[in-house]
Every structure is written in structure tokens, then in C-alpha cells.
Amino acid sequence: MNNGFFEALADLGTENSVDAEIMIEKVKIAMQKAAQRIYPECKENIRVDIDPEKKIFDVVLLQQVVDEEPYNDTEIHIDEARTIDPNTYVGATVERKLDISKFGRSSAQSAKQSIKGDLRDINRDRILEKFQDKENDIITATVTQVEPGRGSATLVYDKTELYLLRQEQIPGEVIKEGMSLKVYVTGIANKSRKPVIKLSRVHRDLVKRLFELEVPEIYDGTVEVKAISREAGARSKIAVFSHDANVDAIGSCIGPKRSRISAIVRELNGEKIDLIPYSEDPAEFIANALSPAKVLSVTITDEEQRTCTAIVPNDQLSLAIGNRGQNAKLAAKLTGFKIDIKSDLDAAETEAAPAAEEETAADAE
Asked: Can you tell me the distance from the alpha carbon of 134 to that of 188, in angstroms, rounded to the nearest whole number?
């Protein structure tokens, strides 16, 4: 029985990434509680001995030797005591090994549940300790499994299994077993019971953290990321600003021979990235945000409602709006303004219409 117990103990420790010493201590406590249920008057007289090296697993009841009828299980008559230790005497203490198999199913089940509960607590504390400073940060994990139908991926980070749901993966990205993935830790759910580490590759702050990792000027605060808008798998816009007149924010992000931005694009599975110069002037910032389209003018129509009109050359209209309105949407998210984009021809016609109406009215009079 002992060999099987120690094998099970080792497997349990490995599965839960718990040190053997901690596991043994938890089993001792559980077995003491189980024995105390059978011998409620012997709380201080029960000892559990576990030694994996010597393959010892014993639950021992310490009993004082008496020469009269024992008062309770804390005592043992001299005649019975001598069957355990022939050299014992009245007043001495004998150690009586208890038959664990006779503890009963309920006691064994209670011990098992107690150990499971302790393991849950250990795992919870271990996970919280490992990930509490990783919230809102990037970790690099290894893909160990991809679920064929649903597409969810199992990742391993520092011996801990994590899950990347399909909806949190970059659209069009093919994830395979053995890959190393950078994922953004959006938070930890259910902290008080069974913590769940929430991961994402579509979160906009993944892009921000990648730039912080790749661009020293962002990491040290010389260049600041002011805003980000993202449509994962397609395009991101990132507004940057330099606090040092001698440091070019855009150039710093691009890097020598485009090395920095290329590394980020590769990590994001080819996602396009527009680097936008940030400006405190909303009109200028909006014009920059509509890149790669050229903007002729921006008029803030309502500062409180944050609406504006941007005029672009007629041949730049589709570029400013983008495929399925993507460029316009990202620019709006980046700046916080609702942008009405018009071509210069449309704008000219709109302006001409009221003048024509006035002339017609004057002629009628």
C-alpha cells in the first residue's frame, strides 16, 4: 500500500506543481483530522509519520500504560501494551499503529477532500503570486495544444497552463503547437477561488507594450504613446509624441532600417501599423490621424460634441475612408472625434448650393 501511496503522492505533487514537503505536510494534517474523527478524545495523542525515502506512512496513537480499566483511548492496559512492546511498564507511553484501511470510507473521503482543498488554496496563491504583477503586461508563452473545432489554444507559461480563446486570437492567424506567442494579460478573474488568467492578442494595449519593448525611447519616457486604435489583424494607428526636440518620435519607432517596426509587424502576423504624430491641436491631430490620406483642412464643428469635418482631395476620398470605412473608424477612435470626411469637390458644391439658392430668390423678387 505504501508504495502506491508514495507514487500517487508524487504524481499529485507533479500535477499541481507543489513541492513534496508541502504535499506531505498537507497529507499529515488531513490524516490527523481523519484519525481524530475516530478517536475524538485523542486529539493531542495522534501522530502521522511520512517518510518517502524509507517508504514509511503510519498513523500512530500514543497511549499511556495503566494497570486498570483504561479511561478512554488515551490509555491502554499493561497486558495489551506488552503485545506492542514487551518491555513497557505502567506509566510509560506506547505507540500503537492504526490500520488506515479501517478508517472508513467517510473518513478517507474527508481526508481526500481536505487535501484537494489545500491544493486548491496552494494553486490559487501560487497563480496569484506569479501573475499579479503581470496584469496589463506581455508574457511569452508556448503553445502546447490547439483545439481542432473551437480553435482555443492551450499555452504554458512558467509551468502554468493558460488558455487563449479563439475570439482573443488575431483574425487570420494560424497558431500551431510549439509556437512561442506574446500575449497580453488583460486581467485575473475569480481571484478568491480559482483564478483565471485572461489573455488576449487582439487588445490594443498589446501593440503599446510591444512598442515599449522594442523602442528604448518609449521605454525610458522620451517618446510617449498618446493614443492607440486597433482593428486586430488588419490595421493599428498609434499616436506618438517626443518630449525631446532632438528625438524624432516616428523615426524612433521605425528604427534603423525599419528594424523595430518590422519586428512588431511580424509579431502581429503582418498587421499594418500607421505611426501618427500627436498634436495638442485637435484639427492637426485629426489630419494626421487620417494618414495615409492627405487632408486639405479640418474644421471642428462642435467641440463639446467632438465633431468635425475633414476635407480631402477628391482622389484621396476613398483612401481617407478606407476599405469598409476602416481608416476613418480608426482615426475617429484615435482622436475621440466623430469625423465627417468630404472631398474638396463635394465641399465646393455644398458651399455653392446656398449661394445659388440666394441668387434664385433674388431673381424671383
From this structure: 9
Q: Is the peptide bond before 292 cis (omega within 30 degrees of 0)?
A: yes
Cα separation, 82 vs 41, whole angstroms: 23
Whether 50 and 56 have beta carbons less than 8 Å apart is answered as yes
Tell me the one-letter amino acid at 277.
P
pLDDT tens track for 81-104: 999 999 999 999 999 988 877 665
pLDDT of residue 43: 82
Residue 69 has what DSSP assignment? -
Q: What 3 state SS string does 285-348 have?
A: HHHHHCCCCCCCEEEEEECCCCEEEEEECHHHHHHHHCHHHHHHHHHHHHHCCEEEEEEHHHHH
CA angle (230, 218, 288) in 5-degree steps: 50
Q: Which residues contact 78 (CB under 8 A, 6 or more apart)?
A: 65, 66, 67, 88, 89, 90
Residue 118 to residue 124: CA distance in whole angstroms? 10
Which alpha helices (DSSP H) does the chain contain, by range? 2-15, 20-38, 78-84, 105-131, 204-214, 216-219, 249-254, 259-267, 282-289, 317-321, 326-335, 344-364
Per DSSP, the residues of 254-273 read H-GGGHHHHHHHHHTTT-EE
Q: What pTM was computed for the model? A: 0.69
